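At this stage, I wrote out one protein, both as residues and as discrete backbone shape codes, and that material follows here.
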Amino acid sequence: MCGDKLSGKSAHGKNKKHPYYEHGRRTKVQSGLAHKIYNCNPHRIPAMKAEEMVWKDVELVLSGDLSNELLAGVKDILGKNHFAKDIEKLKNKVYSINAQVESLTVRLGELPKEVSATAIYNQMGKLEAQKKEVDEKILHLRNEELEKEMPVDFLSYENFLAILNKLKSTGLSVAKKQKIIVSLIERIEVFPDRLDLHFAVGSAKIKRELVLSSSPFINNLPVSCSTSLTFGGPCRT
């Protein structure tokens, strides 16, 4: 797990599109390189496979089979978020490293064939190692941040699930499924053999979702077009 976000894309087959998620930024950086500096596993994952796995656990939460376990497992710790500033500083460091890597990529493309590119590749490798270390620190702080957030009370969470179940019962379009998933899940971590789902149980997040879910717009989400994939929705060409 590298910590980078996966972006939604699609490839055209003979009869239909094949949506998938991949490391979009890393693919772009490496597109002109003779030697690959990133080795993420998995680099790409089929959207249908990932979304089926996610939806299976989402339905368990909506049914109540996992919801009590989720809330019971969260520590009831008071206090403010002390990690936001540290996370922001680390994110700025990641942006700086990414900019340096992209600058080196440009230099590599302009390098004459007779000049060795070893020094540039070595520097790219060092920057990648630095970025990996910073990403790990960010993930660690985010985990602590989630643990220290005040969990929502059982009644509010039950109301929250009831609203999402009502939305589900009105007929599942792609947009409605996306709304339910985004409301329930904080983040998803992709590993070679599994997906780790981090469900939202923080009080602020759930109560904000309760307010948004009370809007009349929630029951009139568009049916024909998906926004779950950057390039893979049925209305995109």
In short: The chain has two domains: 47-74+151-237, 77-149.
